[in-house]
What does this fold into?
Amino acid sequence: MTDAKMIGRPKSDRVCEQYEGQQFETTACYNGLRDEAAAAIIALQGARDEHLRMRMNLFNDCSEAVRRAEAAEAEVARLKDELAEAHRVIEPFATLNEGWVDEEGWTDKACQNDRICDWLGPSDFRRARSFLNKQKTGENG
It folds into this structure.
């Protein structure tokens, strides 16, 4: 095609006709380029969609990990409170006097004439009973 014929024609037509120095029918060349561009766009959209899907999965995974970490943190706090309560319950029983009890039972160091109610009050037993009832029923804290 001469330069005079190419003036005023779309650039894509001129590129098609000049491709590797060959002459093509303008419509066929345009359709071929359009199909290649459409295929490239579809491939890019597919890659973009895959990238977005991967980012969304990563976001969901991170959100789930944060939720599990927060739940674990709450459970740790609950267990710490429960352990502190268990320490409060057991403390009166553990601090009677060192050496009063060994693996075989009461020792000679134990006060022989005192009763357990002389050392532990009703509130100690109520607290222990309440704590054990909570443990049996599965109540928190």
